[in-house]
Prior knowledge:
Strand order of the largest sheet: 3-2-1-4-5-7-6
Oligomer: single chain
CATH architecture: 3-Layer(aba) Sandwich
Amino acid sequence: MKQEIIQQTEYWNKEVNTFDSIYTAEKSKFSKWLDKVFRWDMQARYDYTFKNSEPVLDKTILDVGCGTGVFSLEFARRNAKFITGIDIAEQMINVCIERAEREGFSSKCEFIKTDLLEYKTNQKYDICIGIGLFDYIKEPQNVISKMYDVVNDRAIMSFPRFWTWRAPVRKIRLGLRKCSVYFYTKKRIDTLIKTAGFKRYDIEKVGKLFCVIAYVK
């Protein structure tokens, strides 16, 4: 395993308790204000994902970098047929399993500690998502190509934009915590998606992010 993956695994295992606070009310009033003003696009990418996943009913979903299961479990609530969530951090996977059990979704959700390139499956999923994933991947081409290989309809992804004030701030903040972070131009995303083999796609600017929906057909 590459040293970078080891460091990021350690980082995300430590971050498990605060990972999904952006999507919840479990913050101070000041932190909520900061999120609303400076990080509203985190919620926007959530809304983008589900808007572009419809209809979810009876669909199979692969959630790459599932974290604590925020997206996976919402797909389950919306009556997706089956959801697989994968993540490199064991503590994240443990939280996902506990939450699925608590909400009664164990029969339609599975969570696996792995990264996408190591994940072995013969299944083709209807939808594959990678939200907040490519921020932490130095060489994304193989990952996006693998997403193309395992999906039969569409992939939904988010990428942090390169030329924003938030980019250097995140670079320094996460670097001090030994977690690498990467940023993207629209031109680079265009090349990555085309090279992976997707037939058509849309790249939308959402705050400090690019959100992408890419279709196999």
